[in-house]
Amino acid sequence: LPSSHVLQRVLSPTSHLDGDGAAAPMETGPQTGTPPCSPSSQQPAVKDDFQFILCERCHQESPNLKLLTCLHTLCLDCLSENKPIGQCPICRMAIPQASGIPDMDNLLFTNLQTRLNIYKKLSNSSGLSCSRCRSETAAVWCSECEEFLCTKCFEDHQWFFKKRSHEARRVEELRAESAHQFLEDTRKSYNLFCSSPGHADQGHISTIYCRKCEKPLCCSCALLDSQHAPFCDIRSETQRRQEELGIMSQELKQKRSSFEATYAALQDEAVRLEQVQQEMRELIRQRVEQLVRLIRQEEEELLGLVEAQQEQGRQEVVRELQRVEGVLRRMEAGERLVEKMSLYATEQEVMDMQPFIKDSLEQLQQLRPPATGDQAQPGDLAECRARLQAL
Question: Domain named B box-type: which ranges (predicted)?
Answer without folding.
Answer: 125-171
